[in-house]
């Protein structure tokens, strides 16, 4: 199987999709490295940072992850308070290595009938405590 995107999209101006991916990772890593190392982050991406999130898909052998394993530790390395993504259309909250992952896609209308209504689309995250243990 080949997705239409894979067949029709071109990595221009890069020679290959792998070249485009390496350049995108380097750019994103440089931006994240420039952040204040004391402050927490919220990482937002269309695709999940972890391949693990594709496991519940109906056809997991055809998981449209579109990611790279190079992002698997970003939530830890870049102090993520939460990681937000939406590509999979499986709205849920999961935790990995102490990190909170929010799949926030609304999905397509035909998918709305297949799952219970979401109780709350907006989530309030707890504020991180400072080194002395007091809330900021």
Enumerate the strands of the largest sheet in spatial order, edge to edge or round the barrel. 1-2-4-3
Low-confidence stretches: none
- Choose one word for the global shape: flat
Mean pLDDT: 81
What's the assembly state of these chains? single chain
How far apart are the termini? 50 Å
Percentage of β-strand residues: 5-15%
Helix-strand category: alpha/beta
Supply the number of helical segments: 4
- Number of DSSP-assigned strands: 4
Helical fraction equals 10-25%
SSE run: HHEHEEEH
Main sheet: strands, sense, barrel: 4 strands, mixed
Rg over alpha carbons:
17 Å
How is this structure best described in words?
The protein is an alpha/beta fold and 136 residues long. It has helices at 4-8, 17-33, 74-77, 109-112; strands at 41-44, 80-85, 92-96, 99-103. A four-stranded mixed beta sheet has the order 1-2-4-3. The model has no long low-confidence stretch (mean pLDDT 81).
Brief synopsis:
With 136 residues, this protein is an alpha/beta fold. It has helices at residues 4-8, 17-33, 74-77, 109-112, and strands at 41-44, 80-85, 92-96, 99-103. The protein is built from four helices and four strands; from the N terminus they run ααβαβββα.
Secondary structure layout plus pairing:
Elements lengths: L3 H5 L8 H17 L7 E4 L29 H4 L2 E6 L6 E5 L2 E5 L5 H4 L24
Parallel strand pairs: 1-2, 2-4
Antiparallel strand pairs: 3-4
């Amino acid at each position: 199987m080949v997705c239409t995107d894979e067949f029709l999209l071109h990595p221009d101006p890069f020679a290959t999709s792998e070249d485009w991916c390496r350049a995108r990772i380097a750019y994103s890593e440089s931006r994240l490295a420039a952040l204040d190392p004391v402050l927490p982050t919220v990482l937002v991406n269309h695709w999940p940072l972890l391949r693990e999130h594709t496991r519940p898909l109906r056809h997991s052998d055809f998981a449209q992850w579109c990611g790279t394993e190079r992002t698997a530790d970003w939530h830890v390395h870049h102090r993520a308070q939460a990681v937000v993504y939406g590509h999979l259309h499986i709205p849920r909250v999961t935790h990995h290595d102490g990190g909170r992952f929010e799949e926030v896609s609304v999905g397509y209308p035909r998918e709305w009938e297949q799952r219970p209504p979401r109780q709350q689309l907006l989530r309030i995250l707890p504020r991180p405590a400072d080194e002395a243990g007091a809330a900021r």
